[in-house]
Amino acid sequence: MSTAHQKILEEKFTAYIIKYISPNFVDGIYLIWFTDNDSESTDKLLTLKNGRIFSSKKIENIKDEIINLKHEIDNYERFIIWLNDDSNLESIEDNFYDTKFLLNQIEQNNFPIDSIELFANYINLFGDYARQNEKNNYLLEFENNSTIKQLWNYYYEAIFWPRFYNKVDFESTQLPFLDINKSELHIRLSEIITELDNKIHS
């Protein structure tokens, strides 16, 4: 690796550890999400060359497992500096996605801000994976479902942007009524979770 190439990696590369729970991974697994240092700064999940998503059952094993799979990891060279920096591998996740909890919230018709935010962030994560490789583009049809889009748009229009521009006013304002078909939402979100989980290397 040239010095110039290494400098680019040091300046642009960031990666985050995600703890992920779903009906298929009830004990939780760990995924790696990163911003690529390509011209578009693409957000991606760490995958193997076959397109499956890297996962680890124990956060303390992530480094060794990536190294052991280095010939199978896609874009492994971009992780070398990150792997060599022990501060990146402390025993704590950067983000937490619990889709099992989220589905339970929908079943109970319970839509607090935290749950809606979790939903939007998870859909964004799913979208990142769907867009990072042309082979995954068929997954976008799940993201573009009208009920999924309805709640995703509600989050940004009623929560994210109002809170971003004026947090004080937002905290004292009641959210607009959310009229959504919870049964349809539960079905469509379950489909998305199944699609993503089926792509995880475990």
List the helices and strands and how they pair.
Elements: H1 3-12, E1 14-22, E2 25-35, E3 43-45, H2 62-68, H3 80-84, E4 95-98, H4 99-107, H5 113-131, H6 140-143, H7 146-165, H8 167-171, H9 182-197
Parallel strand pairs: 1-4
Antiparallel strand pairs: 1-2, 2-3
What number is the mean pLDDT?
90
Q: Which structural category fits the helices and strands?
A: alpha+beta
Instruction: Report strand order across the widest sheet.
Output: 3-2-1-4
Q: Strand share of the residues?
A: 5-15%
Number of helices: 9
Instruction: Report helical residue fraction.
Output: 40-55%
Distance between the termini: 31 Å
Over the alpha carbons, how many angstroms does the gyration radius reach? 18 Å
- pLDDT below 50 for ≥5 consecutive residues: which ranges? 1-10
Cα shape: globular
Structure summary, number of beta strands: 4
Largest sheet: 4 strands, mixed
* Domain unit count: 2
Helix and strand succession? HEEEHHEHHHHHH
Summarize the structure.
With 202 residues, this protein is α+β, with helices and mostly antiparallel strands. It folds into two domains: 3-96, no CATH class; 99-197, no CATH class. The protein has helices at residues 3-12, 62-68, 80-84, 99-107, 113-131, 140-143, 146-165, 167-171, 182-197, and strands at 14-22, 25-35, 43-45, 95-98.
What can you tell me about this protein's structure?
The chain is α+β, with helices and mostly antiparallel strands. It has nine helices and four strands; from the N terminus they run H-E-E-E-H-H-E-H-H-H-H-H-H. The chain has helices at about 5-10, 60-70, 80-85, 100-105, 115-130, 140-145, 145-165, 165-170, 180-195; strands at about 15-20, 25-35, 45, 95-100. Strand 2 (about 25-35) and strand 3 (about 45) form a beta hairpin. It is globular and about 50 Å long. The model is unreliable at about 1-10 (pLDDT under 50).
